[in-house]
Design a protein that fits this description.
The protein is of the alpha/beta class and 240 residues long. 44% of the residues lie in helices and 13% in strands. The chain has one domain: Rossmann fold. The termini are far apart. Strands 3-2-1-4-5-6-7 form a seven-stranded parallel sheet, sandwiched between helices. Helix 2 links the parallel strand 2 and strand 3. The structure holds NADP nicotinamide-adenine-dinucleotide phosphate.
Length: 240
């Protein structure tokens, strides 16, 4: 069997759905996140390996990725944040934290996996957000960090071509623990769902299916791309 796909944030809504999906497709998976209990439980359930790390600690992250072995067949970075603040309340700490979690962590993860990705013929999937390409109110912090993830995707794709493909998924609001502050309010969830030409919230399985495609051989001529998985919200207007 080729090396595992490393999923950083592998116990989250999207990361766990991707892990389950890849295992169902016959691929091996190596999970990385902070909470060892949740890692062990999911790994046990699906037959994955795991290592605990906080992505803001480069030494921990390097060790957790190295634990995947000398050859990996993919890397998905599924760690992120949704920080919504009006500009008057935006401080540099929030900006730096978001950049560290969403951008620096992704760079370090890819850098530490480079040799193993080359050895395993792997590809990389990052996650931005619909907010990177569209102006939404109160999104200064997260949109600027996710915009950097999209720029990073293209730069990495150039640096790592042709041996390692690098792509990015740009989700709209997706029903996961990260989005709970927005989705747990039924009225708010319904009104956000209605903003989508396909009028529902994203599901983790929507993102997992797209990521599995980008991590697999059928996307072998796709690199440096941002794939919106957003119910059409970024490009389709059905009213007005
Ligand atoms: N859900 C949405 O609506 C939405 C929309 C746009 C973009 N996205 C993006 O999609 C990606 C996946 O999001 P999600 O909704 O699946 O998030 P999630 O459910 O909150 O999962 C996050 C995962 O990352 C891990 N994690 C968080 N902080 C970490 C840290 N400092 N070090 C190591 N691991 C950490 C969590 O486990 P531990 O807590 O145990 O570490 C968990 O496994 C993110 O990049 C997010 O920004 C999501």
């Amino acid at each position: 069997m080729p090396g595992p796909v490393v999923i950083v944030g592998g116990t989250g809504g999207i990361g766990a759905a991707l892990a389950r999906r890849l295992v169902a497709d016959g691929r091996a998976v190596h999970l990385v996140a902070r909470d060892a209990g949740r890692l062990a439980s999911l790994a046990d359930e699906i037959g994955a390996t795991w290592a605990a790390a906080d992505v803001v600690d480069e030494t921990q992250l390097a060790a957790a990725i190295a634990a995947a072995g000398d050859a990996v067949s993919g890397l998905a970075y599924c760690v992120g944040s949704i920080v919504l603040k009006p500009i008057r309340r935006v401080d540099s700490a929030a900006l730096v934290d978001a950049y560290r979690l969403n951008v620096v962590g992704a760079v370090v993860a890819v850098r530490e996996a480079l040799d193993a990705l080359r050895a395993g013929g792997g590809s990389v999937v990052l996650f931005s957000s619909i907010a990177a390409g569209h102006g939404f109110t109160n999104h200064v912090v997260i949109a600027s960090a996710k915009g950097a993830v999209e720029a990073l995707t293209r730069s990495l794709a150039a640096d790592l071509s042709p041996s390692i493909r690098v792509n990015c998924i740009a989700p709209s609001l997706t029903d996961t623990p990260l989005a709970a502050a927005l989705t747990s309010n039924d009225a708010m969830a319904k009104s956000i769902a209605a903003l989508h030409p396909i009028p529902r919230l994203g599901q983790a399985a929507d993102m997992a299916a797209a990521a599995a495609f980008l991590l697999g051989p059928e996307s072998g001529w796709i690199t440096g791309q941002i794939l919106p998985v957003d119910g059409g919200r970024s490009t389709v207007r059905t009213k007005g």
